[in-house]
Specification:
about 220 residues, single chain, mainly alpha
Length: about 220
């Protein structure tokens, strides 16, 4: 039994959908602003706006201005996930806005429960040493270390090598998935074990999506 790993509450990280528990705050891209930006609610125009804004943010961040990069990383801290979700959340994982949304959502999930996720990571890393090495979380992986990883990955996405950032995020998801799978095996309650297993499966799917996006970025096909 992994007693240390289950001492904290297990946070839920699901970068594939919007978390309804995230408090709504004034956003940069609320529905009215988006309608004005794209000229209405036409789906095709919203899709174009999602890709245009994602590409513009990456270009802006790569200007070399560290202050700009820090503001982009902290975008959802000030305005909530709705700031990016309005345009990006429904885009597929193999698209630039879709994968940036997943990075923002992953970071938000880590910041909501760094203690719980650090403990799950600690369980998983013993079974997934290669993924642990790619993720690059400091040892031992405490709540400060996983928060630092979340911030470093998003900073790297904007200011460094996006493919490397995506691979680190994918590896982190793989270690978490392994940890939840191990905890599911140890869980006596069938309902809870099933929930942990589904969580592990969802993170494995996200890991694969992030890694595929990294390959697409390197080949110039992530748009």
């Amino acid at each position: 039994m992994h007693e240390q790993a289950v001492r904290c509450h297990h946070g839920t990280v699901n970068p594939e959908r919007r978390d309804s528990t995230v408090p709504r705050r004034p956003t940069l891209l609320g529905p009215v602003a988006v309608d004005g930006f794209v000229g209405g609610a036409d789906p095709a125009q919203r899709i174009e706006a999602a890709h245009t804004t994602a590409q513009a943010l990456l270009r802006h961040a790569r200007s070399g201005n560290d202050e700009v990069t820090a503001r982009l990383v902290a975008l959802t801290d000030v305005h909530g996930l709705d700031a990016v979700a309005t345009l990006w959340a429904d885009r597929p994982a193999h698209s630039l806005p879709g994968v940036l949304w997943r990075l923002y959502a992953l970071r938000a999930g880590i910041h909501r429960d760094p203690c719980g996720l650090a403990r799950v990571f600690d369980v998983g890393r013993r079974r997934a040493p290669v993924a642990e090495a790619i993720a690059g979380v400091a040892d031992p992986p405490g709540q400060d270390e996983v928060r630092a990883l979340a911030d470093a990955v998003l900073t790297g996405a904007f200011a460094g090598d996006l493919a490397v950032a995506l691979e680190r995020a994918g590896a982190f998801c793989r270690v978490l998935a392994t940890g939840w799978a191990v905890l599911a095996d140890d869980e006596a309650d069938d309902g809870q074990a099933g929930a942990l297993t589904r969580r592990a499966a969802g993170l494995l799917r996200t890991a694969g999506q992030l890694e595929e996006a990294a390959t697409r970025w390197r080949t110039g096909t992530l748009q």
